[in-house]
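Handout, section 3.2

Students often ask what a structure token actually looks like in practice. Rather than define it abstractly, here is a full record for 2-iminobutanoate/2-iminopropanoate deaminase. The first block is the sequence as you would receive it.
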Amino acid sequence: MPKISVNTGSALGAYSSAVVAGNHCYVAGTGGFLPGTTTIVDGGVDAEIRQTMENLKGTLEQARFSLESVVSLTCYLKDIADWGRFNEIYREYFPSEPPARAAVAVNEMPAGANIEVTAVAWREDMA
């Protein structure tokens, strides 16, 4: 099966939003951008976390995957104090059988973002 690139219009550089290779979907750093733009959503960290999760969901759906197919997720936070709030909102998107996950605090992110996630999704049947 060939490699398939997915582009959402929110990439800040020369990379695909996601790449499907076989039964796996590798989602690049996804932030709280307004869909199809490189502008961070207004409304503070909560709004940015929610938009990030919606963008992840949309990217996966564009690649013919779903949140339920995510097996691993890494969250990058500009301020580790937002980790608790991230967890609360994250649970709304992964209410049962959540993927393996890591959270990392970073000094800065592109576009002044406060959060970014990467993910790997897997499906048994790609027919």
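Discussion prompt for tutorial groups: The two ends are 11 Å apart (CA to CA). How would you have guessed this from the sequence alone?
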